[in-house]
Structure formats: structure tokens, C-alpha cells
């Protein structure tokens, strides 16, 4: 009898031990996987049980949670001006999120360790848990101006504007856009079906072209080539004479680099400022070969290329291209070949010149406050790189002002304001019309805004540089006026 009891006791102890092991495995080892498992209905309902914090910009609410009164789906996300801010706010779907809704998720849903004190106070007072509010650097007037101007072009494109002195992002618009409300509902079937439609769409409305896509920058990159040339010898300036042949022979090839349409650039020898005003190809291709790949690559890195950047969304890597031969350097130095830039990177180049040669780290989050409005964190602007000396920045500024006053970018002129800029037209390899670019900052003497705009396939087949000015520059002008005319 005792032996039977002992065996039963041992069996019970063994089962109890196995039960404890299983419980610990579930709670400690598998907890995270179980929590994120799409089949976990409790997790699904919990996403809608907490009032997520607001996302605001310039005092304007651009994302907020609304109480539905439904016990299962208590709070749902709403986006006033949804399409205008889609690539900034992102969406909050039944199983995922995007953009700020994703990167700041733990703050927005109240689970961040930074909100421990707030949660403790709410628990003591019996108040429901609420997420923190995220305030962005976006200027609503600039955002609206960029959106409206890009839409009028009827093309795909992007614009990003920065405060050159801080790096704060004032506008971030990508077209085509989408309605994040459609992806933030509670019906998985409808949400997932709509997401699949958008993801498969040929024009890629979910893509944030300002930071997620790279393009050949075309002639806007000539300001970087000019920067490298001026930094290489401080005695050089806007009036330095440079060779400007009608065609530039490319070493070890049987081809030559022409100016647009094979036109002459002045008399064959022109000043550096004239070459930039008229956006001649041959002087800058020649300068690139004279400096060599290593110096050109180094200058791009001084403008921030190669640095891992998150705003807080991750930014695609811009690249001058691999080291090949001198012919490739010539092409890359005029913004073609393997030279690939995001619109944000080109805006950073303009901002670096505007800010006396210092490139600030770009950022989108201005401050974080708890549900009671108490500030938890605030932006702390940081220097990213020193691109050029203050002296070189001044020379570049004067030349870019001349491009707007006397060159290809006259449609970017703002009455009573001195505007600096550079047009660009980037050829594509798919046979489509070239992309139209423009980078700019203003006021030139005390810059408040720097930007880059691209209109995909926005350049006409005739007068490519002029259409960079005709298509992209007016879009930039609208944003400059929105920021400066308060």
C-alpha cells in the first residue's frame, strides 16, 4: 500500500514539475511569440482598447483615436486631412502600422517605459490609460502648398523641406498618396484587401518617395561638384574661368559628353558662375575628372551621404556610385550614371550650403507630451557633418542666387526675397521623359527653409534644363512663400 502511495506521489510530483516547466516556457520563452501571433484574438481587441495619443503638427491634429462606444473595438484611428499627411502619419492597421504610427508606437499606445510614472498615477487615480502625444516639426501651410502644387503637375513626385538651422522637417509630401483611414479599420478582410490593392498598384502610392526612393539627381548635383572644386583650392570662386567645350571627350571611349542639345556653353571658356547658371555639362564633367573619384566621393560624404539616417523612419541610402573609370566619374559629376539620391539627401545638400556649410541631422518629431500635456521629451538639434567651409558656402550661395536671378530657375523667384536654387533634369534608362528637379533655400541672406522637389518624368523632350525650371521650380516657390509669408 505504501509503495502504491509513493508511486502515486512521485507521479503527481512529476506532473506538477512538468506543469511548472510548461507554464514557465509559455510565460518566459514563448510569451512574445504568443502575444504577436495573429490568431491571438485578445491581442487583436487590446489594440483598440487603449486611446492612442494624438499626432499633431503646428497645432493641428493629424491623427487621433475616436471612442466608438463598441466594447470590442473601443477606439479607432481617424486622420483629418488623411491623404495630405499619409506618408508622415502612416496607418494603424489590425496587425501592423507604418511611419510615425509605427516608429512611435510604444509612446502612442502608452506602453513605453517613459510613461511608467503616468501609468502609475492613472492606476492610483482610476483613470484609463492613454498614450502619449507626438508633435511633429511639419509646417501645415508648407505641407498643403507642396501637396497642392505637386498635384497640379499631374505627375508622381515628392517634396521635402527642412529648417536648415535645425534639421527639422517642415514638409514631407509624396504623390501619389493614399487614405490611411482605409487601412486603420477593424475589419481585417477589408483592410488587408485594400492594402494588397495599394501594394500592387503600379504607381506605388504606399511608397514615401522623399526617403524611400533614390533617383539620379541630374544637374542639381552640380552644386556638389562645384563645392568639391572650391574646397580643393580656396583661391577659386564664382569668377574662376573653366573650360567649357561644346563636347567633352570621355577617356578610353569613343563617345563624348555634350551640353544639352549639343549646344555651346559660352565661347568655350566661361566663369564658374556662368556654367552653373546655364547648367552646362562639359565644365562639370571636366571638373569631376580633374578632381577624381576619391575627392568627389569624399565631398558627397561630407554632405551626409553614407551616414545611416532615420527621421525616425529609416531613409534609403544615397550613393555617388562605385569606382569605375574617368568617363564614369564625369557622368556621375553631372548627376547621372550610378549617382542616386533621395529627395531628402538633396534637401540636406541645399540646407548645408544655406547653413554656412554645416549639415544638421534631419528629424520629424518635435516633442512628446503625456495625456495631461506634460512634456516628456523634446527635439535636440544635432550637427551631422561639416560639408564645406563657411567661405565656400558663401560662394555657393551667391552662385545659386544667380541661377534664380539670371539662369534656369527664374520661375522660383519670390517678390522681395532673395532665393537661391539649382534646377536639374535627370535622364532615365527606361525611355520615359526625364525627371525634373529643383533644390533651393531662402531667404539667401538668412535662410529659413531649404528644400528639394522632384517631378517624375516631369521634363519635356525639348529644353530639359528649362523644364526643370518650368516644372519643379514653381512648386518650390509655392512652398517657399508658404513658409516665409507668415
Q: Label the overall shape.
A: elongated
Counted beta strands: 17
The stretches of 5 or more residues where confidence is low (pLDDT under 50) are none
The CATH class assignment of the domain at 218-364 and 383-484 is: Alpha Beta
Mean pLDDT: 90
CATH structural fold name of the domain at 218-364 and 383-484: Beta-lactamase
CATH architecture identity of the domain at 218-364 and 383-484: 3-Layer(aba) Sandwich
CATH superfamily of the domain at 218-364 and 383-484: DD-peptidase/beta-lactamase superfamily
Organism: Nonomuraea maheshkhaliensis
Domain Penicillin-binding protein transpeptidase: 157-481
Protein name: D,D-transpeptidase PbpA
InterPro entries: Beta-lactam/transpept (IPR050515), Beta-lactam/transpept-like (IPR012338), PBPA_dimer (IPR054120), PCN-bd_Tpept (IPR001460)
Q: What is this structure's SSE topology?
A:
Blueprint: H1 2-29, H2 31-36, H3 41-46, E1 55-57, E2 60-67, E3 75-78, H4 82-89, H5 99-103, H6 105-108, H7 116-125, E4 133-136, H8 140-153, E5 157-162, E6 169-175, H9 188-200, H10 222-232, E7 241-243, E8 247-249, E9 256-258, E10 269-271, H11 272-278, H12 281-291, H13 293-302, H14 326-332, H15 343-354, E11 358-360, E12 365-369, E13 375-378, E14 383-386, H16 390-406, E15 420-426, E16 435-442, E17 449-455, H17 464-484
Parallel strand pairs: 1-4
Antiparallel strand pairs: 1-2, 2-3, 4-12, 5-6, 5-17, 7-10, 8-9, 11-14, 12-13, 15-16, 16-17
Helix pairs in contact: 8-17, 10-12, 10-13, 10-16, 11-16, 12-14
Amino acid at each position: 500500500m505504501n509503495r502504491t502511495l509513493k508511486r502515486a506521489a512521485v507521479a503527481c510530483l512529476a506532473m506538477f514539475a512538468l506543469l511548472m516547466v510548461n507554464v514557465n516556457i509559455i510565460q518566459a520563452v514563448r510569451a512574445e511569440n504568443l502575444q504577436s501571433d495573429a490568431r491571438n484574438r485578445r491581442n487583436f481587441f487590446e489594440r483598440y482598447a487603449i486611446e492612442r495619443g494624438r499626432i499633431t503638427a503646428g497645432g493641428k491634429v493629424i491623427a487621433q483615436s475616436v471612442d466608438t462606444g463598441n466594447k470590442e473595438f473601443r477606439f479607432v484611428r481617424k486622420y483629418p486631412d488623411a491623404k495630405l499627411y499619409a506618408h508622415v502619419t502612416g496607418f494603424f492597421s489590425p496587425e501592423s502600422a507604418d511611419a510615425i504610427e509605427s516608429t512611435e508606437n510604444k509612446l502612442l499606445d502608452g506602453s513605453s517605459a517613459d510613461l511608467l510614472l503616468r501609468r502609475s498615477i492613472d492606476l492610483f487615480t482610476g483613470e484609463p490609460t492613454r498614450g502619449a502625444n507626438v508633435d511633429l516639426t511639419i509646417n501645415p501651410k508648407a505641407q498643403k502648398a507642396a501637396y497642392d502644387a505637386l498635384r497640379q503637375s499631374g505627375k508622381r513626385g515628392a517634396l521635402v523641406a527642412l529648417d536648415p538651422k535645425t534639421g527639422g522637417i517642415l514638409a514631407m509630401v509624396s504623390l501619389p498618396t493614399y487614405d490611411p483611414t482605409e487601412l486603420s479599420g477593424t475589419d481585417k478582410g477589408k483592410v488587408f484587401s485594400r492594402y494588397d490593392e495599394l501594394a500592387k498598384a503600379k504607381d506605388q502610392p504606399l511608397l514615401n518617395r522623399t526617403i524611400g526612393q533614390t533617383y539620379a539627381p541630374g544637374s542639381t548635383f552640380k552644386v556638389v561638384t562645384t563645392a568639391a572644386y572650391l574646397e580643393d583650392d580656396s583661391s577659386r570662386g564664382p569668377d574662376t574661368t573653366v573650360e567649357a567645350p561644346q563636347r567633352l571627350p570621355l577617356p578610353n571611349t569613343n563617345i563624348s559628353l555634350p551640353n544639352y542639345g549639343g549646344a555651346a556653353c559660352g565661347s568655350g571658356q566661361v566663369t564658374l558662375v556662368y556654367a552653373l547658371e546655364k547648367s552646362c555639362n562639359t565644365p562639370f564633367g571636366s571638373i569631376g575628372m580633374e578632381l577624381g573619384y576619391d575627392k568627389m566621393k569624399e565631398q558627397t560624404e561630407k554632405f551626409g551621404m553614407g551616414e545611416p539616417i532615420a527621421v525616425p523612419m529609416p531613409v534609403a541610402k544615397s550613393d555617388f556610385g562605385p569606382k569605375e573609370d574617368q568617363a564614369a566619374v564625369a557622368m556621375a559629376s553631372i548627376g547621372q550614371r550610378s549617382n542616386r539620391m533621395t529627395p531628402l539627401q538633396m534637401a540636406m545638400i541645399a540646407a548645408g550650403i544655406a547653413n554656412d556649410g554645416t549639415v544638421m541631422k534631419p528629424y520629424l518629431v518635435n516633442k512628446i507630451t503625456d495625456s495631461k500635456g506634460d512634456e516628456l521629451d523634446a527635439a535636440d538639434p544635432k550637427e551631422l557633418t561639416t560639408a564645406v567651409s563657411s567661405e565656400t558656402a558663401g560662394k555657393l550661395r551667391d552662385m545659386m542666387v544667380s541661377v534664380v536671378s539670371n539662369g534656369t530657375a527664374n520661375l522660383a523667384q519670390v517678390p522681395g526675397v532673395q532665393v537661391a536654387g539649382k534646377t536639374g533634369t535627370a535622364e532615365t534608362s527606361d525611355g520615359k521623359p526625364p525627371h525634373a528637379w529643383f533644390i533651393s533655400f531662402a531667404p539667401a541672406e538668412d535662410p529659413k527653409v531649404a528644400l528639394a522637389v522632384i517631378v517624375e518624368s516631369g521634363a519635356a523632350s525639348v529644353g530639359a534644363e528649362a523644364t526643370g525650371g518650368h516644372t519643379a521650380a514653381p512648386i518650390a516657390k509655392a512652398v517657399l512663400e508658404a513658409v516665409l509669408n507668415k
